[in-house]
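Practice problem: predict the structure.
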Amino acid sequence: MKNSLISAVLNTVQAKIGFNRNLLIAYSGGVDSSVLLHALVMLKQQHLPDLDVKAIYIHHGISEHADVWAEHCREQCKIWQVPFIIEKVCLALEQGNIEQQARDARYNAINKHLTPDIALCTAQHLDDQSETFLLALKRGSGPTGLSAMPESIELASHLLLRPLLTISRHQIEQYAQECNLAWVEDESNQDPRYDRNFLRLNVLPVINERWPHFNQMVARSAQLCHEQQQLLDELLFDCFELLIDNELNLSIKPLLSFSLVKRNAILRMWFKRHQVTMPSRKQLDIIWQTVIQAKEDSNPQFILHDKQVRRYQEKLYLLPNYQDLQSIKLNWLDLNNALLLPDNLGKLSMTTTLSNNCCLPNKDQQVFVGFYTQGIYQIVGRKGSRQIKKLWQELGIPPWMRTRIPLVFYNETLITAVGIFVTIQGQGNDVCYQHQIY
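Answer:
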């Protein structure tokens, strides 16, 4: 029995990692990740000498035992001769969903150690699949959410593998005991205030006692939901591709003739392509009503987690939540040194090697850089003066970019919106202002 269970787990893990030989294991020191790491070490020793395994421990700092757990993982990796990485993350414990915060922080920390040739392995198992399915059911999710967790998925530039997903928690615990593994117990796993713990501690034991094969049936239903979603994506793929441009902005006009079901499916495909958390049905309805169907002369916006949904010239845009820069004004003391800009906007530099189109400031003029202005301006290449709002509109600058384009002032006089236009007052042949985003 012992050998058959161990062999079954090893064979499953080997099949699930496929031809991937460069693996980073999310190792918490718990029984699940301990079994996964041990199985991979055994496979390397017995069958796959070219297997390159590393382990990473994410130190959340929530538990008072976190340092002890980290040291346990370090010592275990030393015994198994597995390179070990530790990453500390900070959570705002008084704000929002701690589970979601921890998950996001964990993946952000792990991503720093991933490249396209490294696959991430996590230790979710069959019971976790049931919990994920039921949590999606609680949220009212459709086929995508009810697909729960796939055994493998492409995330950004790397592959995520879940080699234990068809193995039950009971089998994992048996394997750990039979191999005399040592692991840590996270006390938070016994706290039923967390939804996943509530299901694991109070709900699933009752269900599994009545229906012993419930977890396998949930996995089957999740797989069927996944297949249905795949079919839907295939059927809508050509239509969707015609609606997006090279920057993944979505054309709105065709959506107006679609049925509610088709329209929402297209919108979900769009959010999925952007790799963001899927909005709820209610959020989709609000986006449709307040953004897509807003008046043409309005500037609609919907905040979705850390993104914003915007509309401009009959297209839908998904953008970061930008910092408000309207009140910022930077004093550029030395034009020979690049000026660092806020909110990841890169830097501004002065050069005389490009097509110079600006004059230099006079000795009594200070150079300032801002991101907002009002008033009437005449720009080079156009007759007459216009309100700045009209200029932005005529030049096709989206509303959210109108406060992110560096504006160079000499004292209070606007000289140039860098890369967009030069005012009559700033016209010259002395220098060029260059904006570099990195």
